[in-house]
Amino acid sequence: MANNASIVILDGGRRLPRADILHNNKGPGLFTRFTTTQLGGMAIRAALRDTDVDPGRIGHVVMGMAAHSHRDSIYGAQGARWRGGLPDDVPALTVARICGSGAEAISVASEMAIAGLRHDRERPFYVVGGCESMQYPFSVYNLRGRAVGSGVQKYGPVDPRALPPGVYLQDALLMCLYDPGAKMAMANTAEELGRRYRITRQECDAFGYRSHVRAKAARDAGHFDEETEPVVVGQGGSKAPVTVRHDTHILEEPSLEGMAKLFPAFEAGGVITAGNASAVVDSAAAMVLGLEKDAERFGCKPLCRIAGYGVAGVDPRIMGFGPVPSTRKALEHAGLKGEQIDIVEINEAFAPQALACMREFEKMGLDPEKVNPMGNAIALGHPLGATGAILTLTCAYALRRRKLRYGVVTMCIGGGQGIALVLESIH
Known about the structure:
This protein is of the alpha+beta class. The protein is built from 12 helices and 21 strands. The protein has helices spanning 36-50, 76-83, 101-115, 172-176, 186-196, 201-220, 256-260, 292-297, 323-334, 351-364, 377-380, 387-401, and strands at 7-10, 14-15, 19-20, 22-23, 27-28, 58-64, 92-95, 125-132, 138-140, 147-148, 151-152, 169-171, 178-179, 184-185, 231-233, 242-244, 281-291, 302-313, 343-346, 406-413, 417-425. The longest helix has 20 residues, at 201-220. It starts with 6 loop residues before the first strand and ends with a strand.
């Protein structure tokens, strides 16, 4: 019987494949043409199609998004809402906790349902998830109000041929990965964790290799299929459309020898390389959640129960440590011990960051072999605002498929935070 404050995620949540922002590192990625709201809309439409709930019972949309990549990004969840097929009388909320935004969306909707202040008894279900196109623009600053060509630039498009001398573009992707509070880029905070935990380059490469091997095995076994919505991408002209069915970053023949040949990417003598850091990808995920008593009332099939929540702040110079205190809080909230957890999905932002957290997880009773059994962001990618929602679906479907009970989903957050959810499978 449902607890009055028990939240369930309904069966039928879907996520898109994670597509590299560059195809083979040489050309535009497969999802380059899609905005963040378009990706979110695709995920919502798929989730509503495959979830056994009347769309008329959806009372709110809550979607995570980390950064603004396109001109319609300001509309965030609202743009994903209408693109996903929900009517105009359904309100939508965009939440941003950077890398934890997708998990935060799940948490915020849960709080809305439990608190009841904005809960609609006749439309008691929430579409939640996250979306992120990481096709961030190159930006021009300090141009508004300056003379450009024959006039003063107030707003609108700019003819680059008319730009005054000294004006240059900055890559918003690189800029947002630098934290002025820490006075470090995200990768450098992970290098700092590596130094504090004396994590070697060999350990990082082995972890990257592990991620690719496990992800490839899971993909080949079809373990991602039930959560993934294929995306048809037009190629223009007479070219036939391409159907993207799988995550695109997985190496077909990973090797430790190949990993060892890669140069440090962020610091001279550092341990992080392109082979043991998360891939930069575009994706989205969506699912429907609500109070368990409402799922029972309307005859909806639950996939899992959210048993615990946790969020924590940490020193921004070691922002990657955030999963440790947030997971501890989530376990305490769930009333569980680490030994009871069957699957842990920790976002692999960078190998030394994940490895440092795993050492602390062991002290909580979490088995390292149960961490990321299907690979994670090094092989699969990290679409910032979507990752928390994607990992939640991956964990929930894996628990059901393997007839296990408890899972933890957790990730670090730029600026010095961590977020975690504890899932209890219902099968």
